[in-house]
Fold this sequence. Notes:
Elements: H1 2-13, E1 24-30, E2 34-36, E3 52-56, H2 66-70, E4 85-89, E5 91-95, E6 100-103, E7 106-113, E8 131-135, E9 146-150, E10 160-162, E11 175-180, E12 184-185, E13 198-199, E14 216-217, E15 220-227, E16 242-244, E17 255-259, H3 264-271, E18 283-285, H4 298-303, E19 377-385, E20 390-391, E21 395-397, H5 403-412, E22 417-423, E23 425-431, E24 433-434, E25 448-449, E26 452-456, E27 462-469, E28 477-478, E29 484-490, H6 499-502, E30 503-508, H7 514-523, E31 528-532, E32 536-540, E33 549-551, E34 573-578, E35 595-600, E36 611-614, H8 619-628, E37 633-637, E38 641-645, E39 676-681, H9 689-693, E40 700-705, E41 717-720, H10 726-735, E42 740-744, E43 748-752, E44 761-762, E45 770-771, E46 774-778, E47 784-789, E48 807-812, E49 821-824, H11 830-839, E50 844-848, E51 852-856, E52 865-866, E53 875-876, E54 879-883, E55 889-894, E56 908-913, E57 924-927, H12 933-942, E58 947-951, E59 955-959, E60 967-968, E61 976-977, E62 980-984, E63 990-995, E64 1008-1012, E65 1022-1024, H13 1030-1039, E66 1044-1048, E67 1052-1056, ...
Parallel strand pairs: 1-18, 91-92
Antiparallel strand pairs: 1-7, 2-3, 3-4, 4-17, 5-6, 5-16, 7-15, 8-17, 9-10, 9-11, 11-15, 12-13, 12-14, 19-27, 20-24, 21-23, 22-23, 22-27, 25-26, 28-29, 29-33, 29-34, 30-32, 31-32, 31-34, 35-39, 36-38, 37-38, 37-39, 40-44, 40-47, 41-43, 42-43, 42-47, 45-46, 48-52, 48-55, 49-51, 50-51, 50-55, ...
Helix pairs in contact: 16-17
Amino acid sequence: MFSRFVYLLAFLASAVFVQAQDDAWHLDYIYILANEEIDPIVSPNQQSTHMHKIIGGSRMAAFYNSDYYSAASCSSLRQQADKSNYWMPNLYVIDSDSNKYVPVPALVRFYYFLSRNSQYQNVSPFPKGLRILTGNPMNKSPTNVAVFTCQINQDFSGSLLGNSFNFNRDCPWGMKTELFFPPCWDGVNLYKTDGSHMTWPDNGVRSGSCPWSHPIRLPAIQLEYTWSTSNYNPGQALAGKLAWANGDTTGYGVHGDFVEGWDQDLLRRALNANGTCVGVYHSMQMGECPVLAPTMNDAAAKACKPERGELQEPFGNLDNVPIPRLPGCNPTWGTGDKPGCNPAIAGLDISGMTGQDGAYVASAADTQLFKLPTTPGWHNIACLKEITALTGGVSYTDASMTVESCQASCLSAGYQYAGTGQVGAWNCVCGNAIRPSASYFPGMCSTPCPGNSAQQCGGNYIFNIWYAANGTTQNSTTLADGTQYVGCYNNPGTTSQGLIGASTYNFQSGSMTTETCIAACHNLKTNWALTTSAKWCYCGNEWRFGTGSLVPSSYCTVGCTGNSTQKCGDYYRSSVYNITDASIEKSSVYHPPGWQGCYQDLSGRLALTNNYWTGTITPQTCINGCSELGYSYAGVETGKTCYCGNSPQITQRLPVSQCSTPCSGNSTAVCGGTNAMDLYTTAGANTTVASVKASKPAGYLGCFQDSGSNIAFQNYYSYTVNPMSVEICKQTCMELGYSYAGVENGNQCRCGNNVPTTTQYVSGMYCNKVCSGNSSETCGAGGLLEAYALDNSTMAPIMPGQSAADYITCYENSNRGLTGYTYYDNGMTIEKCRTTCSEFGYGLASVYLSKYCGCGNSWAGATQKYPASSCQYYKCGGNSTEYCGGQTQAAVYNTSEVTVTINKPDGWVSCWTDAGNARTLQDYSYTANPLSAKACRVACANQGYQYAGTEAGNQCFCGNKIANGAKAPTSSCNVKCAGNNNETCGASGYMDLYNATGAVASNGIRGYLGCFTDDSTFNGNSYVSDWMSVDSCNQWCYARGSAYAGIRNGNQCKCSSVAPTLVTTSASCNNPCTGNSTQNCGTATTIATYELANTGIKSADFVVTSNSTGYVGCFREGSTRMLPSYYFSSSSMTNDLCISNCKALGYAFAGSEYASQCYCAAKLDPTSGGYRVAESGCSQQCAGKVGICGSGNILSVYSTLNATTTVATVEGLKGCYSQGTFGQTPALSYSGGYMTASLCRRTCRSAGFSIAGTTNGNTCVCGNSATYGAAAAPASCNAPCQGNTTETCGATFSSAWSIYDTTGAGSNTPAGFPANYVGCVNDGNPRVLPNYSITNGGMSSDACRKICVAAGYNNYGTEAGTQCYCGTSKPAVALLPDSQCTSKCPGAPTEACGAGGKMSLYAIAGASSPNTTASVSVSASASATGSVSGSVSRSASASASASASASSVSVSRSASSSSAAASSSASSSRAASSSAAAASSSSSVSKAASSSVAAAPASSSSSRPASSSSSASSSKASIPGGGAIATDGTVSVTSTAPITSAVTAPATSSVTVPSSSSSSKASSAAPASSSTTSTAAASSSTSKAPASSAVTATSTTVIRSSSTTSSSAAIPTGTALGCWTGGNTVFSSATMTGHDNLTPSMCQIWCNANYYTYSGLSGGNTCGCSNTLDGLTSAPASSCSTKCSGDANQSCGGTINNTYSVFRAQAATRPQNAKRFDSGSASIRRDRKGERRVVHSQNKKNVNEQSMKRRGKGVFAHW
Length: 1759
């Protein structure tokens, strides 16, 4: 572990991070001085509370004295000039298992980080005697003074950071604790128990500037202890397993100590060695500093020991030694209070460690405390960061800042500190002190002042600080009256925080001057005055500058309102004056008794708004006038206005100087001022309300202003007359119905209904003009009115006649006041005029000039009213007892009591005069019989006219204006209408005038325009139908884009873009519609017309309904088809056929026409021009003899919505489709009279296509892209398949496709065929399967499959009964009907083996391709009696399968299990009825695995050594040879472990498996002692087994040609075994007789395919197979000289079934140009060493071989 930390040290030394502008020294070679319980800082001259790990000077003791410590003889630090001491608490591993604590050793190093306050000030050395603590042993939360690192890897990659030592894993390369010490010293104190003598800089633990309170920058110590926490219990997670020496288990209580012991001079020189030791801006080892290098001594550090020894613990002080408890009283604890010890822990003897403790305050020589200057004047004392560096003051911005301007502003405001700097803009900040935490930035205040570039004003967020010592003064400005100008004051944003908030008085004045404000404040005896915002003055005593500041005087720029040459501050600043020494005279202006003072009046008039007047006034006349009016207060303002009221609202009191305007009634007196009011009480008035009222006539109200905007009576009546008196005026006003009367200017009378407001009320002394009709009375004055109330006066009626009660008044009528309707009548009476006006709807009637009557609703003439006597000049022409007006006056009456009853149709306006040469309505007219008022109104409204008029009974007039005529009495219009005897239609010379707007015809159907007589105006399409309705016509015309539709004569529909105009009565259009008798469809002379925009029709589509059968109706075709989307015809057409096909195509409507035609569409095409006709129009019987199918050009239309389709559902059929391009360049297509849909689908599926299409009854096309055309009616695909008429194969003449999928059941091979069967196909030249072929008289599909599979082909086929073909790729060929492959298989008579030129094609689905490199699945099947001792997997009645690894082959038995075949990169094997799993274990090989095994009797046992080791791997094997058969081919086998397995049998046959062969046991290995029944058929000679043995075992194995076999007869090695003679039963298995193309290779392949070991040829054309050579005797080669029927160059035995050419059975190999099973790599080929592959089959003795021949049974029978 120590070596790890040597590397750690070297790494850390090079991994220092130092921030920009930082220097740093690090000391990496440090030795532990002591582990002991002393702490001279916290526990001087006492035992410490816990254990510490200490480094540094040798004089470490329980006390601290700098002189003593610095004289130490050595230091455990390599830097021997540093006798300082540093320590951390010891760390312990908690061993919970042993309840022990293990002290942890540590590698220690430290840094001195030398960051500066600024680049202009070096770091200071530690002051002599300094003590520093960091951290808190009692802390229980994360702290920023420490960092923990779990170092996981040697290169420190993946290290973890934490805030404590509780990492949830181990730290193999140490747990590092980094502890930071504060570097900023206060300059005085060497130690304070709260640590306040030290603090941190402003940018973390070591960077940035120190605060003003601690400006001395010392080296920032970073103490690093890397703890070897994995020394004890390596791999243990640290969480919960560590504790500091004080028992803290949270890790947060980490802390550290430092006491100074440096060679002060040396450290100072090093800290000032710029360019070598500092100022290099990177970290360095202390030894790299030339000043410090001479004192570096590793040997001295390593040898250094404490001079007073080490304070020993009872159980020792060594690291890594478990101890029973933590030293001292330190039980472990996490949170909460620290527990105590019971019993108490005995203390240690500390006597040898005590001594004289050093000073806690620096000596005078070492003190670096800053002291403020005492000499009066400004002193530059510091450069600090941030505007907040000064406290208790204010700041302001100044773009022209200078040092002097800022100093002056601050001193004027009473501040001793001033600072200049930038915060965006230049700022001057004033204050009372420096904020202790302000960052000290020496030398950085170098930016020139904007107002004086020779001065330095700080910088960006940097402030140059100045101090004014006590006694500092500055120049000031003093005015002539002794006032001292203080300066321009920057008002604070919150006024209460500054001088304005401290003011005791303020006012504003439009004539403000500096003198005015000073005088006002001086009169109030305040200490200061200020002016601001041009017109405001504030006075106060407290000099509360608050957050405001004094700025240069140039900032106060706004001129005073009273003297623009003076500055009254500005809108955010104030001009401030000290008036304590001012000498100002007081004002001596005279005011009458009751004066309250001068008050500011900006707008409210001091609430004296009850009454006021303007004129010639003095204070006394205003007082008397307000008293007369009953008010308690009077106020004068602007020299000419008097205000009265009872509750003055006292505002700001102003100086007397502000109320100095001379009075308009006496220029020697003052009457207020501008915005200033002199306020008085009325207690000294000479007049009262009662005294004035007693001198006036009854009802007197007072004297009121009556001019300009001050009108006494609103809506008053006035007239002038001489003579005038109060009584005359009062009488007139009562007659005219007024409540009040007033006299004015001696001869004017005014009447009104309101009491004049009190604000117009003035003193009666001003109403002093004598009445022209009574000299004893006054009648107001000019602009002044004396008002009287009339409530106690009465009057007699003033107008005679029966309508006297309805008389209103007498008006001046020179310009006719009622002109709504006027007429004259020589017999005029008041009643007649009133009745006429009431009839015309007017509320007023006027009579004048004896015979004239005027009507209206309001008087519009002159507003001058007169007494009733003025309207009694003329007698009425019809009644001499009544008066009808005066010379120019009209008597006006109310008509409300007159009742007139008029009964006219809607819209009637009036009876109107009309003349032939000057028509009233001139735009349009017509004559109609019949005619009604409504018909005329509708006709006019339809054409957009506003007015309609009926005249002379049958005439209709229209117009937008009344051009001529006049309103006439209703009785003048008395002729009955020609169409309605209950209505009048005007008269000769008179018309009934109507408002036509909104008149509409109505018959209950939307859009009805009316009944018209001019149908010839219709200019669009039309049709006549015996099935007509309003709805169908409207819809038809809407579809044609017409605006109007009209129906006439019950059956004709006409469309138009223009409307007819000649409206008659709706009753004239009374013929019922032929299609809807409830609707009227015009007559021969009238047309019922509809405006389509108002019918509610939103779509041109036909609105159709259908009955329960879906029938919609009978429709005649238009110029285009009504159902245009799809069409087909059929000679057996029925409506059901049409409907079902349209529905199948997704159409909503179907229509049959002309007996055999069918049309489809989503809707009836409204633009076609077709229309509905009577049902009789659809009269032609359907071609299918069921139902009616329209007629010529007439459709029977049906909805397909609820129709049930008769189209049968056919499995796989996607539909009928038009041609498209599907058949143009097909990937596969063919035709034949045998075609069926199923056959086509099978063909396409076999060839790998997803779409099968048939057409013309006999054609099949395959493809993957749906390039056929659009969907067609199912009936269009009318061609029955020629091979199966129950199926559909498109359309005749290939006009449509029947499209099928190839995924359904119908696309599969039918049941009853052998496995893998594809179908019957044509074969010729070239061959469908061209890669390999064989002919055999015992051919079957199974035999062919075995031959091809053995040769590595997955596709095979039989042909002409005896032929077998193999192929690499599955052919994409057309399938014929299976019945065309008629040749029976000789080896399986129930199967077909193709025919002449036709092949029964097979393909093994999912088998590996020749290129596949996969795991080998090897299996074996055992069903025998006997026992073999070995390790052989056994699974009864189960299936076991697995994949062999690339390095091993495993052979297993599984009784009665299923089989599978596979190939792999190892040796390839075929197994019987099971698949074997690869395994690597100690095992022997199951039968026939790379060895020859003798046949054993059932009672014998064959054993293999249980200890045989076969952790073997087998390399991939290729099919040997390059031709059809390889006689000496090799199989490459690589063994990773020797196999020494022997199998013995009682028949004296023994087999030895070569050590180089490989094998692995099955997936479930049996114990070595397990017994299994086995008989093996091997590649060497095999002794004959008893007939009682029952064996079924097959295996693919590799046998070396060098393997040896001992038997009764020696069998030659190799493939050709020679010539042999014997009985005819030896080669009687799987025989091929009379073969006309026999060769040895063919026989070998045949026997191998049937799982036999040996093949024997005899008679030149006979082949037989066997698993034994028992009973044979070797014969000379000449005995086997019969030429082979297939190759005359080779011999195929001798006498048939007696003399045999014997060969080992061999699997076929693929031709040279075919891909092999292996990769063909040269390395594999080089590894072949004469090995060959043999396929074994059953023992013939216990197998029904004849049955196998017939049925092709064998291990592959169920593939």
